[in-house]
Amino acid sequence: MNRRYSWFNITSLTLGFAFLYIPMIILVIYSFNASKLVTVWAGFSTRWYGELFQNEAFLDAAWVTLKVGLASSTLATVLGTMAAYVMVRSGRFMGRTLFSGMIYAPLVMPEVITGLSLLLLFISIGLDRGVLTIILAHTTFSMCYVSVVVSSRLASFDQSLEEAALDLGCTPFDAFRSVTLPIITPAVLSGWLLAFTLSLDDLVIASFTSGPSATTLPIKIFSAVRLGVSPEINALSTILISIVTFGVISASLISKRAIARQRREEQEALQV
Question: What pTM does this model have?
Fold first, then answer.
């Protein structure tokens, strides 16, 4: 019986990963295709990478996406960490239910509703749509994800370490900066990476809040695909896959080192 379940799990897992990653592998292979037809192999070539880096429209969209991703993920990480700290450490306070509802609402809110409401807000206050409005929109919907990640780490955090720092003369801010923040750094980095990934991937909200002077890469790719898939899009997608893969591997290594360092510090603190 157990062997049957194990083979079923292995088969299901294999089919699931194949369904997810085989299309990506095919896309990467055909990004080196010499033919303009994306479904006909005509030999190995890096021609489309060269043409991609000469395409000003794609380069401008990539630069806008990078700026928006870095700015919105950083703001979302700061605000989300603050919100998580208040939710976990402040106990009961007036308006807690409303505050938590406003933090977690974007998790279940359809992106179309979020994008439309933000568009109406920007129009009502007379704010021209551009890079700033996209940053504000991405910060709004990605902050809740950071808050969830960081609050889960704070909930399992040993508060006796902070109390020891306070007993030794640290102010609450110094205790947070010297003790709490280094320990929850892996969760903060995970939240930042999640917010950055959500910003890079967003199409719906950005389409509502972007303007003629600011077009993100997902919007540009979607517009180009509607006219037909070109080999340049395959090359661009391959570069994005490589960047994401490198980022995931780097984040995993950093998190493992941070967790190992955290365990050593906790053991040293307990011994003292």
Answer: 0.79
